[in-house]
Specification:
Blueprint (H helix, E strand, L loop, with lengths): L3 H16 L7 H7 L6 H10 L7 E7 L3 E6 L1 H14 L12 E5 L10 H9 L4 E4 L4 H13 L13 H14 L1 H15 L3 H24 L6 E3 L4 H13 L4 E3 L2 E4 L8 E4 L7 H14 L5 E7 L3 H13 L9 E7 L2 E2 L16 H18 L2 H4 L2 H21 L7 E2 L2 H4 L7 H17 L4 H10 L7 H10 L2 H11 L3 H20 L3 E3 L6 E4 L1 H21 L8
Helix pairs in contact: 1-3, 4-19, 4-22, 6-7, 6-8, 6-9, 7-8, 10-11, 11-12, 13-15, 17-22, 19-21, 19-22, 21-22
């Protein structure tokens, strides 16, 4: 697909440089600095006179003090829509493919995923998952495992509730000095890879992974796991590299690194010789740049960690691992999830909300909503369950993504399940309705495919024209969310597309029926193609947001 906005910028870029060949910056500001008397309207006129011949501009007009209004050629828009219908919704082509690594979700082994993981998991739904599976808490868990299940080497311990197991071991760690010492010894033995300790570590990780997977299955998220342990062997080499380059200072037994322009240092070795999060994050970024050969690395964590990542990125640049002009390394931070009382989202007893409980509550409420609308009377059981899952998980994801990720957002089931306004419930319903138009008029897919190749998409009615232009803004939206990683722009666009479609559908008959018999008298095929193009773009938008639409709802 063509990004019309970018193409117009190219055309006007040429017009400006032809009209004002000596100026690098916008003409008005440049001329003001050179104290030349010109009115914005004169500049606009000169630019318009120098617009090169092109395929898309019908005419321009200068409005007010010097705004240039652009009118597109209808035949050009029509051809782009036909192209979309024949070739599918394809993003604009790249000169070369880039590898993107996204570090997201980041649950901790031995702790349940809670509402705090919701945003990172949904926003970062992509391909790489960073897991906290190494470090002090493991010493504590292994020591507790040895006491509670001494024969764990030969008999798999029945740990079903890992959260309770974690709390028991944490209580002992905080209250019992002897146990605390043993826990620290266990960490050292784990890090030096003693077989019995690795076995204990694997047991705990497996129980956790099974729990995480239940959440990922609900949200339809596929991950490639990289635990902190994955980077363990690389940390020693990273510390040596910083030492060899003379970048390490000693501070009361700690080894620290100051990066230029940063007020706080990174601690790469603690005074007891252990490594820190700083060390594993440096090892991870080096691995992603050199071994994974990533062109773009994005870290999706809460905004509280912004400072930490700023220092890590600065240190990676200091040592020469990457040049920000060549590699894009970025922290995509987000605000916290609030309850309807505008305070941090907690259960009634003040505990953190378990993510699995939240998803199950979503399923229950979504089914109630569908039954309230009488959908259980018209859908088969299989269709009803599909719709239930699509609405429950789609609404939870969309409620998050439709807010600017930088801000905190209020979690409210009532708002997210409302089928009016900018919600997944409304969009899923709108999508199902669009998809049903052809089905109810008995138009086969093959007929639509053939029509896409042979029928011109007419845009004579103002609502057809408005919808056609709205559909073709999709590549521009994709470019914007790629640049700023703010997905609410895509949500706003999908909502605008759905409401623009409703205006079109209310004003333009796609299928004309006999009033007495209800039989189809006439099919306006170019309008059916506009329905198809709208649904195709919506489906691709849902796919990017990780939402699964259904054919019947």
């Amino acid at each position: 697909m063509l990004n019309i906005n970018q193409r117009l910028q190219q055309i006007f870029g040429e017009a400006i440089s032809t009209a004002y060949p000596g100026l690098e910056n916008p003409p008005l500001t440049m001329m003001k600095t050179k104290s030349q008397k010109v009115s914005p309207r004169e500049i606009a006129e000169k630019i318009v006179q120098n617009i090169p011949n092109n395929e898309l501009i019908e005419r321009t007009e200068i409005a007010g003090p010097g705004f240039i209004n652009i009118h597109l050629k209808r035949i050009f828009v029509s051809k782009l829509l036909s192209n979309l219908l024949v070739n599918g919704v394809q993003p604009p082509s790249l000169k070369k493919k880039k590898k993107v690594v996204v570090d997201f979700s980041s649950p901790n082994i031995a702790k349940e995923m809670h509402v705090g993981h919701l945003r990172s998991t949904i926003i970062g739904d992509s391909m790489l998952n960073h897991v906290g599976d190494w470090g002090t808490q493991f010493g504590m868990l292994i020591a507790h495992l040895q006491d509670k299940f001494p024969d764990y080497i030969s008999v798999s311990p029945p740990i079903s509730d890992l959260q309770a197991f974690y709390k028991e071991s944490k209580k002992r760690f905080d209250e019992d000095e002897e146990f605390k010492k043993r826990a620290y010894q266990c960490v050292v033995k784990l890090q030096s890879k003693e077989p019995d300790f690795i076995k204990a570590w694997n047991l705990i990780c497996d129980v956790s992974r099974n729990e995480f997977q239940k959440v990922y299955n609900c949200l339809d998220i596929r991950i490639e796991e990289r635990g902190e342990s994955y980077y363990q062997d690389m940390m020693t080499a990273v510390v040596m590299e910083f030492e060899e380059k003379g970048l390490v200072q000693l501070d009361e037994g700690r080894k620290i690194v100051f990066a230029p322009g940063q007020s706080i240092p990174l601690t790469i070795v603690k005074s007891d010789g252990g490594y820190t999060y700083d060390t594993s994050d440096l090892a991870a970024i080096k691995n992603r740049l050199f071994d994974e050969k990533a062109d773009i690395i994005i870290y999706v964590t809460d905004s509280g960690q912004a400072m930490h990542f700023q220092v890590v990125f600065a240190a990676a640049q200091l040592i020469g691992w990457y040049d920000p002009k060549v590699s894009r390394v970025e922290h995509a931070g987000f605000g916290v999830v609030l309850g309807e009382d505008k305070k941090k989202f907690k259960t009634r007893s003040g505990d953190t909300v378990r993510l699995m409980d939240l998803l199950e509550e979503g399923l229950k409420r979504s089914m109630d909503k569908l039954k309230e609308k009488g959908r259980d009377k018209v859908l088969t059981l299989e269709e009803l369950v599909k719709a239930q899952r699509a609405v429950a998980f789609g609404c939870i994801k969309y409620a998050d993504l439709s807010h600017n990720r930088i801000n905190d957002y209020v979690f409210s089931f009532d708002k997210m399940l409302d089928d009016r306004g900018n919600t997944a419930a409304y969009l899923l319903y709108a999508f199902t309705r669009i998809r049903s138009i052809a089905r109810l008029a008995n138009i086969q897919e093959a007929t639509l495919r053939k029509a896409a190749e042979t029928t011109e998409v007419l845009l004579d009615h103002e609502k057809e024209w408005k919808l056609g232009k709205c559909i073709l803004r999709f590549p521009e939206i994709l470019q914007k969310i790629t640049d700023d990683l703010l997905l609410h722009t895509l949500c706003d666009y999908l909502y605008e597309l759905a409401t623009t479609f409703t205006e079109f559908y209310d004003s333009c008959y796609c299928v004309e029926k006999d009033r007495q018999t209800g039989e189809v008298v006439k099919v306006n095929m170019w309008r059916m193609l506009l329905c198809e193009a709208t649904a195709a773009v919506m489906a691709k938008g849902f796919d990017i947001l990780g939402i699964s639409p259904v054919e019947r709802m």
